[in-house]
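Protein modeling request. Please complete all fields; requests missing the sequence field cannot be processed.
Requester role: graduate student
Desired output: 3D structure, token encoding
Chains: 1
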Amino acid sequence: MHTFIHYLHILGIMLLMGSLMAEYLIAKTKTTNESVRMLSIANSIFLISLVVVLISGLFRWFVFGKGNDFYMTNPFFHTKLTLYIILAIIAFFPSRKINKWKKQLNNDSSFLVAEKENKSLFLLFRIEFVLIIIIPLLAVLVARGTY
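Delivered output (147 residues):
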């Protein structure tokens, strides 16, 4: 079971990065009903993988890991957990925008996303990319017991 949870955790991380990349690339195209629909699907996969990583991570922490004392005394673990929470909070904002665009496009097919709104979406995506790149480094430092 430990191997399966570990595999699920790694798979979730890969899906997280892949779906975020898909969101980024889709958002670069012209905003149409189809692109917003695809963006919504990619965002749903991102959110699901965020939950998969969280649940499998909690299993690794409390059930299959090195014990609560090991993790709670490791500052890299605290940093990793904090960055993950920040990632989850930031993920809320693109989801809201995408759902808003989807509703607006359903009501008015000529709707175009304002450039300012699109730029803010890309900024959030870039922040998410940075966090997703830093978190595995912290995971390696935690696993090695480095601090």
